[in-house]
């Protein structure tokens, strides 16, 4: 590995780390209004929904989005696991296992 690539990887890691740490350091000494806290509580749900829906659709230039059926099939047991357990870990494991089974039987 060349030194240029190594330094680039280190700097990317530093920027990623700083972008996650600086907001906590800044907000630690600031009083945040209650309405802002309430508003920001919806951000993780909105982001996860956007990522989830995006993975269920396929893009074709010049056409309407299509449905990615293997991802839909794998998401059904993951959604059920989320409803039953309320555990993100259970949802992720169930989704990964469901996709692995779909690929094993040749549906994905």
Q: What does this 3D model show about the protein?
A:
The chain is 75% helix and 4% strand. By secondary structure, the protein is mainly alpha-helical. The chain folds into two domains: 1-30; 41-105, no CATH class. It has a two-stranded antiparallel sheet with strand order 1-2. The longest helix has 25 residues, at 3-27.
Rough outline = extended
| Total number of domains | 2
Strand content: under 5%
Secondary structure: helix percent: over 70%
Overall mean confidence score, pLDDT? 92
Strand order across the biggest sheet? 1-2
- Give the biggest sheet: 2 strands, antiparallel
What Rg do the Cα atoms give? 20 Å
Q: Determine the N-to-C terminus distance.
A: 36 Å
Protein name: AzlD domain-containing protein
Organism: Lactiplantibacillus garii
Keywords: Membrane, Transmembrane, Transmembrane helix
InterPro entries: Brnchd-chn_aa_trnsp_AzlD
Could you give a short description of this structure?
This protein is mainly α and 108 residues long. Helix content is 75%, strand content 4%. The protein has five helices and two strands; from the N terminus they run αααββαα.
List the defining traits of the structure above.
mainly alpha, 2 domains, 2 strands, 75% helix, extended, two-stranded antiparallel sheet
Topology readout:
Elements: H1 3-27, H2 34-40, H3 43-56, E1 57-58, E2 66-67, H4 69-85, H5 88-105
Antiparallel strand pairs: 1-2
Helix pairs in contact: 4-5
């Amino acid at each position: 590995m060349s030194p240029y690539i190594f330094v680039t990887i280190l700097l990317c890691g530093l920027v990623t780390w700083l972008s996650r740490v600086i907001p906590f350091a800044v907000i630690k000494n600031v009083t945040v209004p209650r309405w802002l806290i309430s508003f920001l509580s919806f951000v993780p749900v909105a982001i996860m929904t956007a990522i989830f829906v995006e993975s269920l659709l396929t893009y074709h230039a010049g056409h309407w989005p299509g449905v990615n059926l293997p991802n839909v099939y794998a998401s059904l047991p993951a959604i059920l696991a989320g409803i039953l357990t309320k555990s993100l870990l259970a949802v992720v494991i169930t989704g990964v296992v469901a996709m692995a089974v779909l690929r094993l039987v040749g549906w994905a």
